[in-house]
Amino acid sequence: MKVVKKILVDKKGMTFIELVMGMVITTLLMAAIISNLSTSIITWQAGKNRSELESTARLAIDSIVREIRYASNLQLNSKSSITITKKNSATNKIQEIITFRYGSSEAKAIYKITDKTPSGGGIGTNPLTPAVIRNLEFTYDPAVDRNEVAILIQATDYKGEVLEYRSTIRCLNVLDNE
Q1: CB 169 within 8 A of CB 68
Q2: Which of 169 and 158 is assigned the larger pLDDT?
Q3: Using one digit for the tens of pLDDT, what is the confidence trace for 5-60?
Q4: Long-range contact list for 51-58, CB < 8 A, 24+ apart?
Q5: Phi, psi (5° rounding) for residue 107?
Q6: From CA 36, how far away is CA 84, in angstroms rounded?
Q7: Does the pLDDT at position 176 exceed 70?
Q8: What residues form DSSP beta bridges with 136?
């Protein structure tokens, strides 16, 4: 007991070696914590970006599907452009003409062009998506099925990976024209 008391009483402070060892241990612990934190932040950011991309693509598909579902007439202008005509159910007159199209390889957005001039309005063009879309493709073959349109949207994430989103829609009013 006297030996332990003597060691504790005689000790006046830390030696230089103890100080350096404490600093080395603290530095190693901090490096491990910072490494784990930065990995967690990168993973969280990747998940957030992917979620935003999926949300954007889903919003674009939902907007297109909503308009196609109640179209009176469909016309496929190209693989990446479709025109939808909507008629007023009471008067059977054209109410609006909507065109969805892929901007270009530079614009990388989906545009909705609304023409309400038949019903007394104007023409408006709105991008549906930010510039993350790589491709928009419509598949419509009236000879096979007059009421079905398939939609494919390809989007590119921040790593350059291409993600595909597909939907098939049945038009409810197209046969009413005949």
Answers
A1: yes
A2: 169
A3: 666 666 667 788 988 999 999 999 999 999 999 999 999 988 888 888 888 888 88
A4: 53/132, 53/155, 53/157, 53/163, 54/163, 54/165, 56/129, 56/130, 56/132, 56/155, 57/129, 57/133, 57/153, 57/155, 57/163, 57/165, 58/165
A5: -75, -40
A6: 52
A7: no
A8: 153
Q: Give the span between the Cα atoms of 37 and 41, in whole angstroms.
A: 6
Q: What percent of the chain has pLDDT over 70?
A: 88
The pLDDT tens digits of the residues spanning 2-16 come to 666 666 666 667 788
Strands 148-156 and 94-102: unpaired
Total count of residues recorded for the chain: 178
Distance CA 37, CA 40 (A): 5
Residue 153 near residue 80, CB atoms below 8 Å: no
Could you tell me the sign of the dihedral formed by the alpha carbons of 60, 64, 66, 69, in that order? negative
Is residue 177 pLDDT above 50, yes or no? Answer: no
Residue 68, Cβ neighbours under 10 Å: how many? 25
Structure tokens belonging to residue 142: 């009236």
